[in-house]
Structures are given as structure tokens and as C-alpha cells.
Design goal:
Chains A, B: InterPro entries: Pyridox_Oxase-rel, Split_barrel_FMN-bd. Chains A, B: It holds the Pfam family Pyridox_ox_2. Chains A, B: This is Pyridoxamine 5'-phosphate oxidase family protein. Chain A has one domain: Electron Transport, Fmn-binding Protein, Chain A (Pnp Oxidase, Chain A), CATH 2.30.110.10. The first copy, chain A, is α+β, with helices and mostly antiparallel strands. In chain A, helix 3 packs across helix 5. In chain A, a hairpin with a 7-residue loop joins strand 5 and strand 6. At the A-B interface, strand 2, strand 3, strand 5, strand 6 and helix 3 of A face strand 2, strand 3, strand 5, strand 6 and helix 3 of B.
Chain lengths: ~240, ~240
């Protein structure tokens, strides 16, 4: 029996990585794993020829990306009619000090996802999406919250974007110098960088006796955020 | 004697923060402090109507931003003629779990800077910019390196962008719930997030006896990256 071919995003001039193509990945597994390891993205879109780059929280379901904002926001009003957008997620993993300025670099993992962003108009669909926005980060949490009001639902806009094309780019190489430069008396090193969770701060106005839910046990001081978010994602979307 | 008025970026429809305007800042001091606390940005630009959102290293001099890349890169070729661009820097500071889905949030600090990106054609200007690219992160390091070759200089493109407009947005509020929701038996907390430096990894091929330069002493395990980069910036640009 032959193996199932791995699903990949189509590649064209928009998402093809032309430089250092050995760092490029287009398969769903790599692209989705990176998307599921973060909560913050940057979205690019155009209004009257002016590009905007907006940071926002996002989440993924299958090959669809979601983000949200105020119904009044400029970004979301502009995207309501299916505007081209690019959603990018980047994790910085190190700063790299080489023996030449030219080879100074950084280790990183990034995904660029391209598609057309559309406002979700259907109320049940929007309501379900907002549930997943919270539960993707904190599995099962929505069921424990004060329910969302009609007014809150109206005040919130949710955008969905089917990923039409995507590319992941990963550098995990540390110091790479020209062969002849290794003979030089120049110090070189890799400085690792990671985003971690600090000590959780219970709200000062909690009712007495309220314990921290067991579902938050992954969010503990010192843990890497990307690992915790990947675990939370797998709990919320067991099918992947 | 009256105080000198604080310098600020002009505000118009492009950069005005319309929602939660109490989180907005336009003064040079706030905008620049945020820009100088990070190394990674996302740049938005447009090619044939398609927005791109590209992660890259950047640095600031006065009211000018710089970033670099390969002379062959799509982004940099496209920007060579003074294209509109938006450079955004975001620091995620926490995830906020409130008593309603609607008030789930995050603490963050972000800057959006707008301008027209231009390729630096002048070789001495480009060479100086690349020196600052390294020295802004690692003060004085370029003088200790193998000099940059003509070929390397040609292979590198540097873009500069005068900041025409900018806005900073800061949320540092933790949990904020509706008044009546504080009476509910629902757990709420702020989960701090920070980006820190790991244990530096000296290159395995260092010549024997090469010690770590004292100028790198700020880059030590456990320190916050934003604090270390702010210190490094102040050492490289004592005038601010």
C-alpha cells in the first residue's frame, strides 16, 4: 500500500519562496503546526492603496483562518466584501552572531497565508466562531462563562479567510559562516529567544473559594507559550 | 519657563486610533521607545493589488526606519521606487481571561508606522546603514568583524522609510469585567507573557581561548529581550 500523499497548498508567484528555498514548506502539516502554535498574527490589507499591518488574535479551523474585532473597526469594515489579505505569524527563536556582518541572522519560524477575508454575517456561525476563539486558547472555557449578549454579538465582527495559498519559512541553523572565516579570532554565538508564560495572576475580585480550573493547568509559569498553545489547540480540535 | 512641547507624529485618518482611543499615543517618545525595544517587525506592502505581510529585522534612526534583505527579494525590488508601506511592531504582554467571552483580551504594546519605503542606492549610505543594523543590536560589534566585501554589499538591499505618521497602542489593564459580572462565581485571571533570552550558545568552532566580548554581557539567560534591546539601542545611539 502506498502512503497517502501529503496535502499541500498550491504554489505560485504570490507565495513561492524564491530565496533560500531550502527553508520553504508548503505542506498543510508544517503550515498548520506553525499557525496553531501562536495566538498573535499580523494581517495586511489595503485601503485606498495604503497598506495596513494590524496585529490581532486569530485561530484556525481546517484550512480557514479567523480573526475578530469591533464592528466599527476600519480593518473589518474594509474586509467585509472579500478583500485580498495576508495573515502572517512569526516566532523568533534566536539572534545569530556570525564572524561577518553579512552572516548575522536570526532563527525563526514564519507562515504567510494568502486569501480573501470575508465578514461572517450569519449570526449562529459568528456565535460559534467566537466560542472557538476562546476555547481554542482555553479548552472548554466558554461553557463556564457568563453567556454572550445579543448586543455583544452585534458589537463584534468576525472575519474568516479560506487559505488559498500559504508558505512556511523556517531557519533553525544557528551560526553559519563562510569556510575561511572559521579561522578568524572572532567570537560567534547563537542567542536563543523564547516566549514564555509568567506566574498567572488571579483577578483580585474573585469570589472567595474559587479555584483555578484544571483546564488552565497548561498555562504555568516558565512554560513556552508555543508549546502550551499547541496543546490547547489539540484539546479543542482533536481531529486536527 | 514653559516646557518644550513634546514632539508628536501628525494624526489623520490613516493612523488615528478610532476605537479605545484612550490606549492611543502619537508622541515620539512613546512610539520610539516601543520601536527600540524590539528587533522583529512585520512590513506590509502591495504588489499588483495583493497585500503582503513580511517579517523582518529593522532598526530606527531618528524618525527613519530601516530594514534589509536580499537584492533579489520581491519585497525590496517592489519598494525601490518609494512605495507606501506600513511597519508594525507588537509585543504581547499577557492573555486575559475575563468572566465573559466578550471581555477576554490581551495586554500588548504595538506601533504602526506609515511612510514610503525607498531603496538606499548610495553605497556609503548603505554601508553605514548595515553597520548600524548590527551595532544597534550588539553595540560596537561591526568593528570586531571580518569586513564586508563588495560582493556582499551588492547582494544586500537596504530600505529606509521616513515615518510620516505613526500610532502606538498600549493595553496594560489585565482583567476588566462588566460591573455586575464581578458577582459571578467565574474564575478570571491575567496570564503574563514575556519574551526572554535563553543561555547563549557559543559557536562550536570558535578558536581556542576566545572569550565572550563584554559588550554582549546584557544578553544573558533569563533577561527580557525588550529590556536588553532597549539598553543596546541606548548604547548605540546615545543621543536617542
Amino acid at each position: 500500500m502506498s502512503e497517502q500523499p501529503a496535502a499541500s497548498y498550491p504554489v505560485d508567484d504570490t507565495n513561492r519562496i524564491k530565496r533560500r528555498h531550502q527553508r520553504a514548506h508548503y505542506d498543510h502539516a508544517t503550515v498548520h503546526a506553525l499557525l496553531d502554535s501562536a495566538a498573535l498574527c499580523h494581517v495586511s490589507y489595503v485601503i485606498d492603496g495604503q497598506p495596513y499591518c494590524t496585529p490581532t488574535l486569530y485561530w484556525r479551523e481546517g484550512t480557514t483562518l479567523y480573526w475578530h474585532g469591533s464592528s466599527a473597526s476600519r480593518m473589518l469594515r474594509n474586509l467585509s466584501e472579500g478583500q485580498p489579505a495576508c495573515l502572517t505569524v512569526t516566532q523568533l527563536d534566536s539572534l545569530v552572531l556570525a564572524r561577518s556582518a553579512f552572516h548575522h541572522s536570526a532563527d525563526y519560524r514564519s507562515v504567510m497565508a494568502f486569501g480573501h477575508a470575508k465578514l461572517i454575517e450569519d449570526e449562529p456561525e459568528k456565535s460559534r466562531a467566537l466560542t472557538m476563539m476562546v476555547d481554542r486558547l482555553f479548552p472548554g472555557r466558554t461553557a463556564t462563562l457568563r453567556p454572550t449578549t445579543e448586543q455583544e454579538l452585534k458589537a463584534t465582527a468576525v472575519v474568516s479567510m479560506e487559505i488559498e495559498k500559504a508558505s512556511a519559512k523556517v531557519r533553525a541553523a544557528g551560526v553559519i559562516d563562510d569556510d575561511e572565516d572559521y579561522a578568524l579570532a572572532i567570537y560567534a554565538e547563537r542567542i536563543p529567544v523564547r516566549t514564555v508564560i509568567g506566574a498567572p495572576e488571579p483577578d483580585s475580585r474573585l469570589l472567595p473559594g474559587l479555584a483555578r480550573p484544571a483546564t488552565l493547568s497548561g498555562f504555568n509559569a516558565g512554560r513556552r507559550l508555543d508549546e502550551v498553545l499547541t496543546e490547547a489547540y489539540a484539546m479543542s480540535y482533536p481531529a486536527g
